[in-house]
Amino acid sequence: MKRIFLLFSVCAVLLAAVAARGTFAATKTNATDITGTWAGDLTTPDGNGFTLTYTFKVDGAKLTGSVQGPQGDPLNLDNGKVDGDKFSFDVSFNNMTINNEGTVNADDTIKLSTKASDGSFPPGELTLKRVKVDAPAPKPTM
Questions:
Q1: Does residue 105 surpass a pLDDT of 60?
Q2: How many domains are contained in the chain?
Q3: Are residues 8 and 72 in the same domain?
Q4: Model-level pTM?
Q5: Is residue 139 part of a domain?
C-alpha cells in the first residue's frame, strides 16, 4: 500500500512540474511583447549623438516596424524575428545594412546592439525605453 501511495505521489509531482513548465514558457513568451514605440539615444564614435525611435509590431515570431532618426523618412525593418526575450532585424539605407540584435530586460527596457554587415559603420549599443502614449482626451459632451 505504501509503494502505491509513493508511486502515485511521484507521478503527481512530475505531472505538476510538467504543467508548470508549460505555463511558465507561455507566460515568458507573452511577457516580452515589444509591440509599440521605443526610443533611445545613440552616441557616435566622435561623441555626437542622436535619438532613434523604433515602432515595433510582433505577430508570433515575426517582427515588423520602422525606425525614425535624423535621416528624415522612417526606414522599414527587414528580416525581423522574435524568440522569447530576444529579437533581431535589419535596416538598410545608402547601400548599407545595419544588423540589430535586442534583448528585453526585466525593467521594460531593451538593450539593442547594432553593426554594419560590411563593417563600414562601427558597432553600437543603445538602451531603448518604451514611449508612453497618453490616452486621448475625452470628447466634450453637449
A1: yes
A2: 2
A3: no
A4: 0.71
A5: no
What's the pLDDT score for residue 135? 60
Res 85 pLDDT > 50:
yes
Question: What mean pLDDT value characterizes the chain?
Answer: 80
Task: Please give the residue that has the higher pLDDT: either 49 or 32.
Answer: 49
List the domain range (segments joined by +) for residue 22: 1-31
Residue 39: how many other CB atoms lie within 10 Å: 16
CA angle 115, 128, 109 (to 5 degrees): 120
Is the separation of the CB atoms in 115 and 41 below 8 Å? no
Q: Does one domain contain both 5 and 57?
A: no
Residue bearing cell 558597432: 123
Q: Does an H or E element contain 27, and which?
A: helix 2-31
Using 50, 70 and 90 to split pLDDT, how confident is the model at 1?
A: very low
Q: Are residues 38 and 23 in the same domain?
A: no
Name the residue among 6, 60, 33, 45 with its Cα closest to residue 123.
45
Quick one: which of 34, 107, 106 has its CA closest to 77? 34
- Is the residue at 70 inside a domain? yes
The reply to whether 49 and 119 lie within a common domain is yes
Q: How far apart are CA 45 and CA 122, in angstroms?
A: 8
